[in-house]
Amino acid sequence: MNKHLDAVLASVAETTLAELAFIFSMLDDEAVRHVSSALIASSVDFSGPFSGSLTLAVSADMLPTIASNMLGLDEGDTSPLPNLQRDALKELTNVVCGNLLPRMAGTQAVFKIESPRMVEPEAIEGTEGQGPVARTRLVMDEGRAEFALFVKGEVPALVQD
Questions:
Q1: N or C: which end of the chain has fewer CB within 10 A?
Q2: Residues 160 and 49 sit within 8 Å (Cβ to Cβ)
Q3: First-to-last CA distance in the chain?
Q4: Which CATH number goes with the domain that contains 27?
């Protein structure tokens, strides 16, 4: 894996989680010891100057918070329905991917981003013969979020920040 690309992915993921879902990462792993280890994941494919996918796996306990925050629900409101929770996760994956690609390829590059889809949590590990080129894990009060970037073929040189 590329350490600089890992850092770019972490930066984009952290910023997007904060701005879109109002969820902030922490340095301390202790916060998630009480949280279920069950993960739920979504993935989005992209093509353009290079092709690949971005996969996001989050603690299942985080889904109601992600959806409520993205939908602007008050704390006293009932938890969003499971289908809205999955839609929020897919949209979060889509937005992180949309924010990451210009950081990798520059703002002039054109990509086609497919519709995000739910995947098995094991997808974060990749498939036989293809592991992620970048990976990051963020820890929050609500649980954890793991991001993995997969690129088909050559990993592109990063555009300078």
A1: C
A2: no
A3: 19
A4: 3.40.1550.10
**Residues 55 and 43: beta-carbon distance below 8 Å:** yes
- Segments forming the whole domain that contains residue 125: 3-152
The reply to whether 92 falls in a domain is yes
Instruction: Note whether 8 and 134 are within 8 A (CB).
Output: yes
114 in a structural domain: yes
Number of domains in the chain: 1
Q: What pTM did the predictor assign?
A: 0.88
| 64 alpha-carbon distance from chain centroid | 16
pLDDT tens digits along 71-85: 877 766 667 678 888
**104 in helix, strand or coil?**
helix
Sign of the Cα torsion 19, 55, 75, 83 reads positive
- Return d(Cα 161, Cα 159) in angstroms, integer: 6
**Phi, then psi, of 148 in degrees rounded to 5:** -135, 130
Which residue matches tokens 């409520």? 68
